[in-house]
Design brief:
The complex is a heterodimer of chains A (249) and B (596). Chain A has 249 residues and is of the alpha/beta class. Chain A has six helices and eleven strands. In chain A, 39% of the residues are buried. In chain B, 57% of the residues lie in helices and 14% in strands. Chain B has 20 helices and 13 strands. Classes of the chains: A alpha/beta (249), B alpha+beta (596).
Chain lengths: 249, 596
């Protein structure tokens, strides 16, 4: 069984994100970039499936600028068998990425696509769902536990009310939540091996996908500064404020 | 508590721009060491350092290692962290492929080791000593010893130690007494060794001790010392572990710093040992490894300085105290006060200068080892030999100074353990002592590295610095011009001192040696200034070419200038100490010390 893992190159989670002076987006020049942490969890899960003998091959895919190669090299060092870069300098929105991934799926015929539930830069939480819809495959989002066997995946999902366990027929799209697993540390021998693993580059045109943005960003601003709070003398005062001022209880 | 973040930006700059990683990657055997591989390795190592080693640094210091009936327990979490280190394959980074290693150059191992040590100095010592022992066996061990021990040591499944010191034989190994009696195919080793770092621990199933001892008919002094492998557990022919050898840890020391690292007193009682190389050549073998070991300790100085700087910077940005001298108003973070800034800049500039010099030395170690041209190898080896005592002596002395400044930036809180600043200061204190004290390094520099070869390499280095001066003269940058003047006075100071040493070392070595440590310090700051000047020129070029990251490059130029005004400016004073100060050093009679 082949597993496809889309990974996104994003501003590293440790970086304090700054808005560009002209308000057109966030500053990414000379900013540390890394693999989206949710995608890292997806990749870890795929590799565990391969190690358990369930999956036979793990292919990492990234859509974006040439520098996404670095993210793919990291994916190869973590343990992906090979990688595909769909190279484009255009701004890629979730729908465009989902279309590109659909085209890659047509080429690769994976039985399972595992990706992060969202990327920490735009927090869109759309690509997995859109991809499943475009492919006409079942989707299991926000996975915190995945069991694959007999042509089906049993996925435990984190939902507001608790845990929801569903069973989907393969091929399917799974998006990962934070608690699915704890990604491994990359080993030195695997960093060295990653250099020799295949990394293929495709272009959106060759895949027949129009990646033109459908959404327009009007303005990006810093979130408003948090106002200072007030100290209440005791629990009674707190309850009073919650009841009468905030009106939440 | 501070969190360690590897200074990847500066590390990459130094690796690529100053130490010339691209050139090292052209040497035979180092083809894998490309800048993108280095990037990937540094990136992953930094995660391991910050997420696995760093969280144990403070708790390890508080808890310390403990001894009970011959067994040593390392602090909570250390054994598991070591397991992860082995699983990550990190120990094999510089080891030859033949023994299961990656065969990467010292230049790539250096920033990685800097990270381990910054994140957790105590933890880093065990891998460092394993490397040393491994290196000795690789160079001089028999094929059988290599086959038995090297693969397990390369993977980190077994660790290594160096057993040199005895109670009566510290810096002077001629006095050592541990005996080695020949018995059939092996030797029986008996004696006591002290200060054995990680001589006993709970990380691994076996420990490979390298022990210096004397055979019964050995000549007196250093020419009668042999080197032996003494494993904690004997190894059967099939590689499995056999009987427990009579090499026991009888206690561990209570120390000022590096509390998590167990410092063992080892008792050998007819323990089975295997000769490394030939009898009576043990000290010579030790000396082959000495450059690597002393370099590693010099790098500890860089590491601890970086860590102390990060801690102090975080505190200075956070601690609100006193009004801004110019703007007035409410109390501000202390980083806005000039004297706190000065301390932070002293920490930053010296740490960067030390890192640059250490990595340049690492590249030279690689070139001296792997260059195809014999003349280049010899020439570079002489340069390495000159630089090693400087890297060891200067980087460790300055490491302590920087860690002390780190305490000072914290004010009263620096004297309180909970900030962690005090730990860095205590941990740093050993680095000027082990692997040869600063005094030993300085004597080596003055005696073996300068006087013995009539100053040839030192003079070549001075020529190199004068060549750089012509480059600096072309710069239009005012900061670089100021640095140029500071560096020129530093070069003159070194030149005067070299002449002084050459004039006196033969007649009365005491005159030359009395100023050996001030001279070593002078060499350190001038070599550091040399690298900062190179860094400033490269940064000026990058800025002119609009090569991205303007903030980094402009900071580098200012930092280099600061180094000139605040550190290189000491050169003239040190020169006077060396040239004029020797008389009073030895003038008093020993009785006069008691007269007051």
């Amino acid at each position: 069984m082949k597993v496809l893992v889309p990974v996104k190159r994003v501003v590293d989670y440790n970086v304090k994100v700054r808005v560009k002076a002209d308000g057109t987006g966030v500053e990414t020049a000379n900013v540390k970039m890394s693999m989206n942490p949710f995608d890292e969890i997806a990749l870890e899960e795929a590799i565990r499936l391969r190690e358990a003998g369930v999956a036979s091959e793990v292919v990492a895919v990234s859509c974006g600028v040439q520098a996404c190669q670095e993210t793919l090299r990291t994916a190869l060092a973590i343990g992906a068998d090979r990688a595909i870069l769909v190279e484009s300098d255009a701004e890629l929105q979730p729908l465009a990425v989902a279309k590109l991934l659909k085209a890659v799926c047509a080429k690769e015929s994976p039985q399972l696509v595992i990706l992060g539930k969202q990327a920490i830069d735009d927090d869109a939480n759309q690509t997995g769902q859109m991809l499943a819809a475009l492919l006409g495959w079942p989707q299991a989002t926000f996975a915190s536990k995945v069991k694959v066997g007999d042509g089906r995946a049993q996925v435990t999902r984190e939902v507001d009310g608790g845990l929801d366990t569903i069973s989907v027929r393969l091929p399917a799209v799974i998006t990962t939540d934070l608690r699915l697993n704890e990604p491994r540390y990359v080993t030195l021998p695997n960093i060295m091996k990653a250099k020799k693993k295949p990394l293929e580059t495709l272009k959106p045109d060759a895949l027949g996908v129009d990646v033109a943005p459908r959404l327009r960003t009007l303005k990006v601003t810093e979130p408003p500064k948090r106002q200072a709070g007030v100290k209440v003398p005791d629990a009674k005062a707190l309850v009073d404020k919650l009841r009468n001022e905030a009106k939440v209880i | 508590m501070s969190v360690y973040t590897a200074p990847l930006r500066d590390m990459r700059f130094v690796l690529n721009e100053l130490a010339g990683l691209a050139q090292i990657a052209t040497l035979p055997g180092y083809e894998e060491a490309t800048p993108d591989t280095a990037d990937a390795i540094l990136e992953e190592a930094s995660k391991f350092a910050s997420e696995v080693l760093d969280p144990l640094n403070y708790s390890g210091d508080q808890e310390g290692s403990s001894w009970h009936q011959g067994e040593v327990t390392t602090p909570k979490g250390f054994r598991q962290a070591y397991g992860k280190y082995v699983a990550g394959g990190w120990g094999a980074l510089p080891v030859a492929a033949q023994w299961g290693g990656q065969g990467l150059p010292r230049l790539i191992a250096t920033p990685v080791e800097e990270m381990w040590c910054s994140a957790n100095m105590s933890f880093s010592l065990c891998p460092m000593l394993t490397q040393g022992a491994l290196h000795a066996l690789e160079l001089r061990g028999s094929a059988e010893l290599q086959k038995t021990f090297l693969p397990k040591m390369a993977s980190g499944e077994w660790t290594g130690t160096m057993n040199l010191t005895e109670p009566q034989a510290g810096s002077d190994l001629a006095l050592l007494r541990t005996r080695a009696e020949r018995k059939a195919e092996h030797y029986l080793i008996s004696g006591q060794k002290i200060f054995i770092t990680f001589g006993e621990h709970d990380y691994t199933e076996n420990i490979v001790h390298l022990v210096l001892a004397r055979t019964p008919d050995a000549p007196e002094g250093v020419k009668g010392i042999s080197l032996f492998v003494v494993p904690k557990f004997l190894v059967n022919a099939d590689g499995s572990l056999g009987a427990r050898n009579s090499a026991h840890c009888v206690s561990i020391e209570h120390k000022l710093g590096i509390h998590a690292s167990p410092t063992a007193v080892m008792a050998f009682d007819h323990a089975i040992g295997y000769l490394v190389g030939e009898e009576n050549r043990g000290l010579e073998y030790m000396f082959i490894m000495m450059n690597a070991a002393r370099f590693a300790v010099g790098l500890e100085g860089v590491s601890i300085a970086e860590r102390a700087f990060q801690r102090a910077l975080a505190y200075a940005r956070d601690r609100v105290q006193g009004r801004d001298l110019a703007a007035g108003g409410k109390a501000v973070p202390i980083i806005r006060h000039p004297d706190v800034r000065r301390m932070l800049m002293l920490m930053k500039s010296q740490t960067e200068a030390m890192r640059a010099l250490a990595y340049v030395a690492a590249a030279a170690l690689d070139t001296a080892h792997g260059h195809p041209d014999k003349t280049v190898r010899q020439h570079t080896q002489a340069f390495v030999d000159l630089l090693i005592p400087v890297v060891k002596g200067w980087c460790t002395e300055t490491g302590i100074e920087v860690a002390s400044l780190g305490v000072q930036v914290h004010g009263g809180m620096g004297f309180i353990e909970e900030t962690g600043a005090a730990q860095h200061y205590r941990d740093a204190r050993i680095t000027t002592i082990y692997e040869g004290t600063t005094g030993i390094q300085a004597n080596d520099l003055v005696g073996r590295k300068i006087a013995r070869e009539a100053g040839a390499t030192a003079k070549a280095l001075l020529d190199e610095l004068r060549k750089l001066d012509t480059e600096l003269a072309k710069s239009r940058n005012a900061d670089i011009q100021a640095l140029r003047a500071s560096l020129a006075s530093g070069v003159k100071a070194v030149s005067d001192c070299v002449d002084f040493i050459l004039a006196h070392a033969g007649k009365d070595p005491r005159v030359a040696f009395a100023g050996a440590v001030p001279f070593l310090k002078l060499m350190g700051i001038v070599c550091g200034g040399w690298q900062m000047a190179r860094a400033a020129l490269i940064s000026e070029r990058k800025l002119a070419a609009n090569d991205g990251d303007a903030a980094f490059y402009s900071a580098k130029i200012v930092t280099a200038r600061f180094f000139g005004d605040h550190v290189l400016s000491q050169a003239a004073g040190l020169r006077d100490t060396v040239v004029n100060g020797s008389g009073a050093v030895m003038a008093l009679s020993e009785e006069q010390f008691l007269a007051a």
